[in-house]
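User: For my dataset I need records formatted as: sequence, then structure tokens, nothing else. Please produce one.
Assistant:
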Amino acid sequence: MRRVARTLEVVLYSCGPLFIALACAMTIPLVLVLLYGEFHQGPETLEAFLLPAALSLFLGIFLHRVLRARPLNRLQSALICSVGWLGFSAIGALPFMIGIDSTYLDGFFEAMSGFTTTGITMFTGLDQMPKSVLFWRALTQWIGGLGILTMFMLVAFRGGSPHKLFGAEGHKINVDRPVPGLANTIRVLFSIYAGFTCFIALALFALGMPLFESICHSFTTLSTGGFSPHDASIEYYRLSGYPNYVWFDYVITLGMLMGGTSFVIHYRVLKGSWKAWFDNIEARYWWSLIGIFVALILFERFVRVAPFAHISATSPDFWRRLEEDFRLVLFQVVSILTTTGFGTRDINTPFFGEAARQLFLVMMVIGGCVGSTGGGIKVLRIAIMGKLIRREVYRLRVPPRAINSVIIDGELVELDEIQRVGGLFFMWIVLLIFGGGVTEYLSHHNGYAALSGMFSALGNIGPCYIPVADMGQLHPLIKIVYILGMLAGRLEILPVLLLFSLKAWRS
């Protein structure tokens, strides 16, 4: 028990500055409370942020002052990731509970969905919700985009062992840092992240989107989170008659691609190396997958619906319909593959055929690039698995003693990494089956829809084949399973499993 207590002290001490940073973040929505006069509607909106901010500040100071700093090992670093995310979500749930009178479980679910950049929501009636609460939803995703603990290191750590935390959260498979040194790496990544966020917000605002909504969508686009201030998501602007809604779609598509692409690639491109877009296997897989999925879904739509059957190629309607179909399919493919989850068409609508719906599930599993804000298994791991399958097929044609290794970008992939990829994929399948089984047993949804819900949670994607209106009515146990699924998907399963390991707590 003494070793467990020591590990718990290490974990909680390291979370202290994390909670202080959260307290600072929770004061930002108060500006909107004052700006939009929401305090006139009652004290609840002010209390929704003041009380949790005070609690988080007190908790952070208490943990950091009372407990002692100790060196971190790998297991403790992983535990800090899991505990930090749970702690953030536990406090981040309070604005929803106080501000809009949700249950604590639904608020916890919404906060976890935000901080993990999943985008599944418990709430409807977003258009009438206080702007401060809507901003908080968006801010949780922006904070979670590069990782809570990465932000934590940026503001709190000075030397010592933060690299262990960085490695535990960073979704990396031998990914080079853009610059030497952890502090410089974080500074560069955060600068790119903030710069891209400003670009998206300014572009949307210049095209006619209201400033508040531009900022919220810039937060949730680059973080690949997918929360929107509107129930209809991005389709709201078409339904509301915004003249530039088409350009909104393209700007947000570009923003989602920015978030789903490795930030190391962004850094190299910004430094002038344009070939970085295609000079590694993950980048080539990434662009190829986008092109293939768009082509397949468009092909199915043309075969199934024949949208141009009665339109001449010389007619303006032909090119308008072609652009519209291409834009809608491209938007949804990028949205799902980057695990953002925005929608310009509901994936349950007849616009998308059965083949498209199956492909969307595949995209949920794949996710974005390593070193991006996207979720999923990651494109690089898919590339490794593809190389592994090719190797095994090749081994059937050559003598048993022939050397045949898995090579990625000219470098040998170690056996440990191959085993880790295989183990991760296996645990994905187990959790998908478990979550889908729980959902089907405790709800009226069929197996297909039930499985898609866990796909959405584990892949940090958001959309699924369970209607949004039904999410809040799900059994509490289903919500808890999805919460753990979202956390496991964000932290890539192992750190979450360690929470239930007594040996890890004795490390």
